[in-house]
Design brief:
Blueprint: H1 4-11, H2 13-32, H3 35-62, H4 72-101, H5 107-136
Helix pairs in contact: 1-3, 2-3, 2-5, 3-4, 4-5
Amino acid sequence: MISATHLHAMVIHFPIALIMVGFLSEMIALFSKKDFFKNAAMYLLLIGALSAIVAYISGNFAGEGIEEGPLKAPLELHEQAATITLWLAIIVSLFKVAISYFKYNRKWTKWAIIFLFTVLVGAVGTTGYLGGQLVYRHAAGVELSLPDFGADLDID
């Protein structure tokens, strides 16, 4: 059966990839001035923010029950970074959608989006780094088991 830890590990890569590719598309739109990239950036950001909500919820379930011990401090850091990243993703998405919906294309809005998107990408990277530290340095969610070599042999 799939646990919350497994689910979080499966879904977390979607917001990371979507937000990073959305940022790349926004940068291409800035220099190429093509609407395709501007629209792609908006949709990638929007889907990335929605998937960040799913990742955040699954992460909360995965971290349940860890109130003390060596994982407490690194888990709290990761949770704080995830909360900041989630709110940034929502704010940047709403700002980008509002600009697009109201067709408010001013020079300052382009640079504001670039700045906010850059901050969001930095937050995603920080949160991902702290999550990676939880797994690879502290072995959070890692189940250790040795293979049963005797199961394949017919030894009595």
